[in-house]
Every structure is written in C-alpha cells, then in structure tokens.
Amino acid sequence: MSKKIRWSRCLSAEWETVREICKKANWTEEQAGKFIMGKNLSEPQNTYDNVLQTYLSMLLFYDISKKTIHYYFVDKELRDFLQSNELMNYEDLKSYIKDKGNFYPVNNQNSSTYARIFDYPVCIHVPYEKIGYAFNYLIIDDDFNLVAEHKRAFLIEEKQYKELSKLPESNLTKEQKEIIGLYRLAFNSLAYVYCFPQYVKDGVPNPDIYKRSDCLCKKIITSKEFKEAITEQKHGPTLKLPHIVRGHFMYLKDERYTYKQGQIVWRQAHMAKGKAKTVYTNEDLLKNDFAQNIS
Asked: Which domain does 125 fall in, by range?
C-alpha cells in the first residue's frame, strides 16, 4: 500500500494561539487576530524582535482574513531546486507585488514623513513534510524585505541577503544558510509563478488535504524544463571547459531585448562557450504541446 501524501501546514503555532483565545474569550478568529495584532502594535517598534512579532501578527491576520495565497507544491524537488538556486535581478517582481499586494502608508518615527509599504502574503506547502513556509514580501520605500517563518521566524532585509550571498558557503553559520535558503525560496517561487502561470492551477493537489473554506489555494506543477533542470542539478557533468551553467531566472534589463525588456524569463542550463538552449517565457510555453496537456 502506497504511503499517503500529506502536505505541510503553515503558521501552526500562531493558529494554536488563536484557537486558545477564541475558546477562552468566546471570540471569533478575526477578533482574536485583531487582539494579537493590536497587542504587538502597542509595543515600541524599536527592536528587531518587536518589529518581527508585529509583522508575524499581520501575516497571521491576513491568513485569518483569507487574503493569503496558499501554494501547494506537487513535487518536493521543486522546492529544493528553488531554495538552492541563486537569485537573478528581481526588480520586475516589485511591479508584480505592487499590482497584486496590499498598500498602506506608515508614519516614520520621529518624522512627519510616511513610508510607502506594499506587502504580499503567501504560504507554501510541501509534500511529505510537517512544517510549511509563511512569507510576507515587503516593499518599503522601494527596498525589498521579507518576513519568513518556517521552523523559526526572520525579518530579512535585501541588503542582508546580498551581503550573505557573497560569502563562501564554508564561512556561513547554520542560521545564515537558513536565511539565504528562505530568501531564495521566497523570491524564486514568486518568479516561477510570474514566469509560468500556466503551471499554477486552482485548488489543491489532493481533495483530502485539510483547508479552510474559501481559502485561496493554488497547486504548483513542476514544468518540463524545470524537471530537466532538477535532473541536471542532481546528475549533470562537472566539466570546466566548456562547462554547464545551471538553469536560472533572468531579468531582461538591457535595451537590446527589444520585445522582452523588463520581463523575467527562465533560461535553461546551457554550455558556456557552447550552444545555448532556449530561453523560455510564458508566451513561448503556451505554444508548446506539453504546456497544453498539463492536468
């Protein structure tokens, strides 16, 4: 008998707190969520821990209000690949977040000015694992920040990620490696959804999956070219001259990309100083037979 597939759950500890408050105070989930968020907002927002807890309570409230998108990965290997793949220039994702997410101005402390904040809450569920991923993408005055919770929570600034990613892996602590992996998974997952919308389907992979009613759920199917990239990552040759460059997202910023400038595309693995494979965009994939046969 085959093993039953179970998908990870997100924000489990936070939801347990909500249920306890609802039981004791006879409140609704929304009332409990507002109470938690108000309590965190009443604390001085001048320490890392206080700011992180405030952002986590906002992420929880988005989930209570059913404004969080829940992505269910059909294949665990896709998570592994996105988490290990280096980030491209993801400027175009800012437009995506501003278009799809929430906007609110926040008064800067000790100033009469306001910060412009956009955020976009997402949960990622992975098969055969217990703990999922909760992310809130934040654009604060055009700078990327990320609220991330998996086994523990972090508030990761774009500058922090860039500094850590320049260090040799052997010099990184366990926590620093975790931060890099979370940041890459969050933004590469968003780039995947942006670049391959035809592989994002409504609903969940299995009808037996527990989900709250009216929750916005999407299943993420691994595309053909990503399966090839995952295989090449696992078993590809390690030649140097010429050598294989692994598949990666690209942001086409240069003016020479006349028709696709400003777009995010996926470039398959190719031979350096050799013949490159196709660069795929969502328009290209829609023309392919395999894209039309995805269930």
From this structure: 12-222
